Amino acid sequence: MWQEAVDRKFFGTGPKFGRQEFDQLLHDFGAVSSDTPAIAFADDLIEAYPEAKVVLVERDVDSWYESWMNTVIKNTYDPFVTVVYHIDRFFTRPIARIHITTFQGWLVNI
């Protein structure tokens, strides 16, 4: 469902997710972290759950950027991971696809 949410939000494949869709996606979970793909839906989640508490964590931009580049970007676009992405279509590929299409969506909507 995360992939469907990304496709709808960034690529217009249907209406954006609202509370009903997020309820189905998140089930009984009481929180999401500021990680991909959930971070791409911060505004949508706040709109869907106006009663929810939002915790804003401020961090030094340079250390965050270095960390993000060395973990998320490096691992998403690592040549070995790319090979695994094409071989493992049941676990790695869906996760990598969500990351990649979320990044593409952000770039298209800048």
From TrEMBL:
Give the SUPFAM superfamilies listed for this entry.
Answer: P-loop containing nucleoside triphosphate hydrolases
**In this record, what's one Pfam family?**
Sulfotransfer_4
Gene3D superfamilies, alphabetized: P-loop containing nucleotide triphosphate hydrolases
Which InterPro entries does this one have?
A: P-loop_NTPase, Sulfotransfer_4
PANTHER family noted in UniProt: P-LOOP CONTAINING NUCLEOSIDE TRIPHOSPHATE HYDROLASE PROTEIN, P-LOOP CONTAINING NUCLEOTIDE TRIPHOSPHATE HYDROLASE
Mind telling me what this protein is named? Unnamed protein product
Q: Which organism is it from?
A: Aspergillus oryzae var. brunneus
